[in-house]
Amino acid sequence: MEKKFIGAGLLSGLVAGIVAFIFARLFIEPLVVEAIDYEEGRSHAEEMLAGEHGGHEHGEIFSRSIQENVGAGIGTIVFAVCMGAFFAVAFTVLWAYLGRRHPATDPRLAAVALGAIGFVAVFAVPFFAYPANPPAVGDDDTIGARSAAFLTITILSVVFAVVAVVLALWLRPRLGGLVAGVLGALAYLVAVSVTIMLLPEFHEVPGPLSDATGQIAFPGFPGDVIGDYRVYAIANQLIMWTVLTVVFALLLGRLMRSGSDESPDAHVAQVDA
Known about the structure:
Layout: H1 2-49, H2 64-101, H3 107-129, H4 143-175, H5 177-198, E1 209-210, E2 216-218, H6 223-257, H7 264-272
Antiparallel strand pairs: 1-2
Helix pairs in contact: 1-2, 1-6, 2-3, 2-7, 3-4, 3-6, 4-5
C-alpha cells in the first residue's frame, strides 16, 4: 500500500504542477516581463548617467520563449511532483499512526488536513517572512544571505509543523481533538514567530534613480507590479496545494476500496508493516 500512496502522490503532483504552470503562464509571466523591461530600462539609465554610451549587450543562452514556456513549465512540474512525493511519504507515516490508533478516521480527511498543514508550513510561513519578488527586485550582494535565511525558515517551519502535529496527537486522548489541535497550532505559531524575529530582514525594492542634480532619471520599481506578483504567487501555490490534495484524496478513496478483498484492518496492517 505504501507504494500505491507514493504513486498517488506523484500523479497528484504531476496534475497539480500542470495546473499551476498554466495559471503562472497566464497571470505571473506577464508581470515577469514587466519586471525584466524595468530592469533593462534601469540598466540603460545607469549607463547613461555613468557616461557609458552604447551600453553592453548580453546574449541570452535561452530565449525568453524557451524560458517562459519550457523552463518554467519543467521547473513548476518537477517541484510539484517532488511535493507530491513528500506529501505521500508524510501521509503514509501519519496514516500508520491514525489507522492503528483511530481506525474510524476517514483517510481522505487526514489527507486534506495534511494538505492544509503542508501549504502553511512549506509555503505560507516562509512567504510571510520573505515574500516572493519579481526580477529586478533584490541586491546581488545579498543573494547568499537571503537564500540562507529563506532556506532556514522553510526547514524550521516544516520541523515545527511536524512537532506540532506530534504534540496534538499526543494530547488528543487527554484533552480532546479540538483542544489538542488548537494547542499544537499555537505552539507552531509561537515557534515560527520567534524564528522570524531572529532572522534578518531585507528591504531591497529599487527606489528612484537620480542624477547629479537630484533630478529623477528613472523611476523606482512599480509597486503595483510587486503587489500583483505576490498576490498571484500566493494564488498559484494555493492552487497547486489544493489540486495536489484533492487529487490525492480522490485517488486515496479509490485505493481504499479498489480491486482487492482486503478489509480496512488489512490495509492498516500493511501500512504498519
